[in-house]
Write a structure and sequence with these properties.
This protein is an alpha/beta fold. The strands form four sheets. An eight-stranded mixed sheet has the order 8-9-7-10-6-11-12-15, sandwiched between helices. A three-stranded mixed sheet has the order 3-4-5, with helices on one face. A hairpin with a 2-residue loop joins β3 and β4. α4 packs across α12 and α7 runs parallel beside α8. The longest helix has 29 residues. The chain starts with a helix and ends in an 11-residue tail after the last helix. Bound molecules: adenosine-5'-triphosphate. Adenosine-5'-triphosphate binds next to α4, β12 and α11. The site of adenosine-5'-triphosphate has 20 residues, from α4, β12 and α11.
């Protein structure tokens, strides 16, 4: 009976791994009762475009085969999201230097993922410039949970939010340094009562030194998004970041090129104020994914001040952020499904990050 279903599932291809889901080891043990087919799928990136497509196709072919599909998720991979209890897919947003739009990308990435239906947290770990409260127009103080030990995150646009800015005041100078920062942030991450997250986007402090690396190693990070602007000095710094992740077996999810081409609202001409194409060249050189190019757009800056993420508007810049978010989620899914496939077939999985 399940043969017919298995045969039907051979027609469903994983659009990223480019193999049918049965051969890729993504289908668990199928059971059928009263015409309902229970199908466990090894999916790890909820609401990502590729996994949504896979699930839709599975429902379609199972329905065509004459059964009522009932899908569940069962993934056995070696990423921190699977091996650390209750860990979401933690995505670090980093940059080699300050001011390239790291926080802007983190806010719009998280908002776009929540807009797709995912449960998303945003953790502002940029102690030296906690911009997230302003960028989302949230200025309250978080409360304590009933256990008096955990902090309840604030909420906005469906996001669960935590920022050092909620605790110390945005304009207060941050007096701690180095190792103390790592400790405070790691502690804060663990002390928040995150509620059943699919993804947690972490806005790291700019730079690629020990502080960033320590934080990456102490949180269950699935991979990092590297943000750069197209000019050489920013790219040089971004390159250092990519190398650092490489050397420590941390996944780079890909590169975002921000403040790329400016389209003049008056004349419609395109201007490459900070040059263009550098992010793509960097991605090519290191064989990592190019996640997208965000234009230099006054509306992006304004949205950072009005507290409403630009990705929620109906503009070209919003569409580029939506695409970037889809690409990031797909990359997370690819890492998790690949890891599951290696585990399922008894091959060596890449080492999980130290937590
Ligand atoms: N694509 C863009 N178009 C126009 N302005 C932008 C764009 N991206 C970011 N900005 C603006 O550039 C400034 C710096 O952005 P942001 O704070 O996101 O950078 P950052 O890399 O997080 O900086 P920091 O190093 O201070 O943490 C902000 O005023 C932001 O609104």
């Amino acid at each position: 009976m399940t043969e017919a279903i298995s045969t039907a599932l051979r027609d469903v291809e994983d659009p990223i791994i480019e193999e049918d889901i049965l051969s890729a080891g993504l289908v668990g043990e199928i059971t059928v009762e009263d015409g309902v087919a229970e199908i466990p799928l090894a999916l790890g990136a909820p609401h990502s475009p590729a996994e949504t497509e896979i699930a839709d196709q599975v429902r379609e072919v199972v329905d065509e085969a004459g059964y009522e599909p009932s899908l569940s998720v069962e993934i056995d991979d070696q990423t921190p999201a699977a091996i650390v209890e209750d860990a979401p897919n933690v995505i670090a947003v980093s940059s080699g230097k300050g001011g390239v739009g790291k926080s802007t990308v983190a806010v719009n990435l998280a908002t776009a993922m929540a807009d797709r239906g995912a449960r998303v947290g945003l953790f502002d770990a940029d102690v030296y410039g906690p911009n997230i409260p302003r960028m989302l127009g949230v200025h309250g103080h978080p409360g304590m949970a009933d256990d008096d030990e955990t902090i309840i995150p604030l909420e906005r646009y469906g996001l669960q939010l935590m920022s050092i800015g909620f605790l110390v005041g945005e304009d207060d100078p941050v007096i701690w340094r180095g190792a103390m920062v790592d400790k405070v942030l790691t502690q804060l991450y663990h002390d928040v009562a995150w509620d059943d997250l699919d993804y947690l986007v972490v806005d790291l402090p700019p730079g690629t030194g020990d502080a960033q690396l320590t934080m990456l190693q102490q949180m269950p990070v699935v991979g990092s998004v590297v943000v750069t602007t197209p000019q050489d000095v920013a790219l040089d710094n971004a390159r250092k970041g990519v190398r650092m992740y490489d050397q420590h077996d941390a996944h780079v999810l890909g590169v975002v090129e921000n403040m790329s081409t400016f389209v003049c609202p008056d004349c419609g001409n395109e201007h490459d104020v900070f040059d263009t194409g550098g992010g793509e060249r960097l991605a090519d050189a290191y064989d990592i994914l190019f996640l997208g190019r965000i234009p230099l757009d006054p509306a992006v800056r304004e949205s950072g001040e009005t507290g409403e993420p630009v990705v929620l508007a109906d503009t070209e810049s919003a569409a580029t952020f939506e695409d970037v978010a889809g690409n990031v989620m797909d990359r997370v899914g690819e890492i998790r499904r690949e890891s599951h496939r290696l585990t399922a077939t008894g091959q060596n999985s890449p080492p999980a990050q130290q937590i």
